[in-house]
Amino acid sequence: MKIISINAGSSSLKFSLFEMNDESVIASGIFERIGNEIGSYTIKYSGQKITQEMAFPTHTDAVNVLLEKLLALEIIRSYDDIKGVGHRIVHGGSKYSESVFITDQVMKDIEEFKVFAPLHNPAHLLGIAAFKAVLPDVPMVAIFDTAFHQTMSEEAYLYPVPYSWYRDYGVRKYGAHGTSHRYITSCVKDLLKKEDFKLISCHLGNGGSITAIKNMKCVDTSMGFTPLAGIMMGTRSGDIDPSIIPYVMEKEGKNAGEIIDDLNTHSGLLGLSEYSNDMRDIVKQCEEGNKKAILAKNKFVRRVVDYISQYYTLLEGCDVIVLTAGVGENNSYIRKEILDKLTCLGVKIDDSQNNICGDFVKLSTEDSKIDVYVIPTDEELMIARDTLNLIKNR
Ligand code: ADP
Question: What is the reported pTM?
Answer without folding.
Answer: 0.96
